[in-house]
Amino acid sequence: MGGHAAGELASSAAIAVMRELDATLPETGSDLEAALEGAVHEAARRLVELADIDPARRGMGTTVTAMLWDGYHFALAHLGDSRGYLLRDGALYQMTKDHTLVQSMVDEGRITEDQAAVHPRRSMVLRVLGSEGRAEPDMALREAEPDDRYLLCSDGLTTVLGPEMLHEVLTTVTDPAACVQRLIDLANEGGSPDNVTVIVADVVAPGMGDEGVYRVGAGS
């Protein structure tokens, strides 16, 4: 998290745990939701260890928005104000809800979405993966469909680009890697105040010899 102690170390530690899932899970037949939630808890445990080694790291944390895929379904884990989007049949859906102060105020009807976008405390995050050891991610299990397109991104992107612009780029730039680069370029041109992390993944219908398993092509 920007401005927090050892935020880059926290995010690197979380990514390392998520990568281990690729090597430990079979392609199909796993409890995706349990596996991904377990990885989030393992990442929290490692952050506690890192903070114990160096007290200067206490208070470090990172957002987490992660998907785990088995060829038919995916599990989604979410903590913080990074986001996950689904583009399906031409419509863009936000799959995650920000764990922020302003989002809680919107949910309570105290402010509008437009007011939240310019609120001075819009960057205050209420739930993250942190060195205190607590990890309470929102979890979901979803069924994939051919031609789905998924966007995972940090708030450095969504602070600058609204849903309309995201939809335009996701629907007009077909190559995932080129789509990622276009989104990053637009965020930087718009003066993004934070780092911009973007992943775009497409679900591809099975072809000859694919045994009915959907494939994913991604850019990051």
From TrEMBL:
Keyword annotations from UniProtKB, A to Z: Hydrolase
Pfam families attached to this UniProt entry: PP2C
Top-level taxon: Bacteria
Primary enzyme class: hydrolase
Record carries keyword Hydrolase: yes
Stored InterPro entries: PP2C, PPM-type-like_dom_sf, PPM-type_phosphatase-like_dom
Molecular functions per Gene Ontology: protein serine/threonine phosphatase activity
EC identifiers of the protein: 3.1.3.16
Residue spans crossing the bilayer: none
Residue ranges constituting the PPM-type phosphatase domain according to the UniProt record: 1-203
The name this protein goes by in its record: Serine/threonine phosphatase PPP
